[in-house]
């Protein structure tokens, strides 16, 4: 089931959104820096490390994850610099962005968006795996997967009880969700996400992702299609943002992936276990 592109629905004016944005907590500066460092060079690694080290929260998280089964180094990692060198730029940036989103969603009222966080990371992991076998950049695919649903934070901050009810009561998938969001808040989470991306001065490609991840499949080989497919598969594997978030059977969703991508996927149960393990490690207190 598809939905008309958000641009055809009439994106609300920035003046209408700015009061909502003012209520939001700031996105962690370390994660924003990681989002904006797109070149994986040694200089970028040093710069990112220098941003992380003065921040006690991110320093602790990077060290904890570097010493976790998720990374499984043979020796104990005792400093952010050591962790950075061992992880490398790509993996470090991925960890910082993922932890940044978790911290950001945790700031939402009553930790309302835990299921959204899990869905976003699942989508990111699937998107990175998908991009490995087509022409889409893997780092971009992972980051886009993490960010695609970030507009939900705006709606949860404006009306936490109302948005909690929406998340838990809908049963007809994304079409109903977007319509109900617009009825309740004057915007849906795709539109709200596009305003956050603009406010954070992120590359324009991310605006396309957050606006159009619920569009019908286009059967093209680009970042937006990778996220649409990954979002559907994350839902079908049990990582939906809402309890009734998937209208598609697993085999149906897998059949939408290009054959050259699908043949490199592990069995569905193994992929779901891999995602669950990463989520579990990142979520540990």
Structure notes:
This protein has 285 residues and is mainly α. It has one domain (15-283): Hypothetical protein af1432 (Orthogonal Bundle), CATH 1.10.3210.10. Helices cover 66% and strands 0% of the residues. The protein has helices at 6-9, 14-22, 29-36, 42-52, 56-66, 80-106, 114-131, 138-147, 152-158, 160-169, 174-185, 189-199, 204-212, 223-236, 250-256, 259-262, 268-283. Helix 3 packs across helix 6, helix 4 (42-52) crosses helix 6 and helix 5 (56-66) packs across helix 6 (80-106). The longest helix is centred in the N-terminal third of the chain and has 27 residues, at 80-106. Mean pLDDT is 82; it is low at 1-12.
Provide the descriptors you would attach to this structure in a database record.
Hypothetical protein af1432, 285 residues, 17 helices, disordered N terminus, mainly alpha, 66% helix, 0% strand
What's the structural blueprint in terms of helices and strands?
Elements lengths: L5 H4 L4 H9 L6 H8 L5 H11 L3 H11 L13 H27 L7 H18 L6 H10 L4 H7 L1 H10 L4 H12 L3 H11 L4 H9 L10 H14 L13 H7 L2 H4 L5 H16 L2
Radius of gyration: 18 Å
Number of individual domains = 1
Query: Helix count, per DSSP?
Result: 17
Q: What characterizes the major β-sheet?
A: none
Strand content: under 5%
Order of helices and strands: HHHHHHHHHHHHHHHHH
What structural category do the secondary elements indicate? mainly alpha
What fold name goes in the CATH topology slot? Hypothetical protein af1432
CATH class label: Mainly Alpha
